[in-house]
Structure prediction request, 441 residues.
Amino acid sequence: MTSIRPLAADRERVLTRLAGAWERIRTSQFWMVAIALFLRVGWIVAGHTYKFKPADNNFSFGWEMGRIGAAIAAGRGFSDPFGDLTGPTAWEPPLYPYLTAGVFHFFGIYSHASAFVLLTINSIFSALTCIPIFLAARRIFSEKVAVGSAWTWALLPYVMFWCTRWVWETSLSALLLAVIFWLALTMADRDGLKPWLWFGLLWGIAALNSTVLIAFLPASGWWAWYCRARLRKPSLAGVLLASVIFVACVAPWTARNYRTFGKFIFIRDNFGAELRLGNGKGADGTWMQYLHPTQDLYAMRQYTSMGELPYIEMRQRQALDYIEADYPRFAVLCLKRFIYFWAGPPRLAQVWWLSQVKNSLFLASSVLMFWGLFRALRQCRPGAWLLFWLILLYPAIYYVVFPGQRYRHPIEPEMTILGVYLLTEAGERFPADPAHESSRK
Prediction:
């Protein structure tokens, strides 16, 4: 008996230490990020996702972003978005192509090493997103929701897909938007001008990374001002400083566009072409890929011979003529695009049921998000209306142009928070039957 008691006591101490260690890891932002990054880089290595197919002259390696990055690295400047020597471009925002060019410069254009580095950088962006998810969820809901949301982001394979397979700005956009959301959420707690400086700087970086994110800028700025006004905190100097910093970030690139094209272009110029890819004869709510210059030889010849701006203006006129000819038809297309954005666009797959399962899961995450948002609004959770404006404003452009599964990813950190909140609340409202639990013991 005397020997058994020390063993039991030792086992109890070990279990206590393990429980304490797990509790520290469970709530540690460091471990969330570290494990998320380990899994993502591990997937890149194990799945050989850095080995892009060389078909079509490596176009799948970053698509337009990769082409422009290759042109910069080769010394041709910000140009040639489709591969041919077509000259200067503003087809894409500048931040990610220049990041790609920097990696190409040191590791080789379209090399496996460059692919590995770029996907690892994307994975760092994705892993770091755990931090603003945790902070925002804790602010709006509770630490339990914060822990669940951050670990869901860290461990969910679907989240890892975009950072481990796509050389694109998607993961950086999700990180920037999540940080901006958290900053706007907490601006009322902050004093001085430094938070406003960060607010303007982050929005400037976000605009140069993905212009569609700017749809959320007015709502986030208004929210920060309104929450501070309710506490009678002054904001005029801060708003002016943030505005100056934002303009200072985007002005050099806008000036470059004016010098290059002789016309004011706010960061990128391809909206008209994108509008045509979703609106025209044969439109069904998805993007008409066969009209893209990379898929249509005739369109590529038009782009090359006309030049970028005249080509885009022609495409925009075609799209507007189609829209103006039948507004009810355009409204139906917008409704379809709304459905496809949240439920997933139709998929072409050899195994039909697999595509249906994927779209069902995609739709389920949207349903959880909307349901969670509705409950958060009803319960007057702090920040619920900021979530509402984000969900309302960010996707609006895609209802007019065309949706894609990747386009939802920048707001999926906030969607994850709302989904976990809903499931957590359901678990609290319907606790396990005590009698059943005691019988299990």
Remarks:
- Residues 134 and 146 are 5 Å apart (CA to CA).
- The radius of gyration is 24 Å.
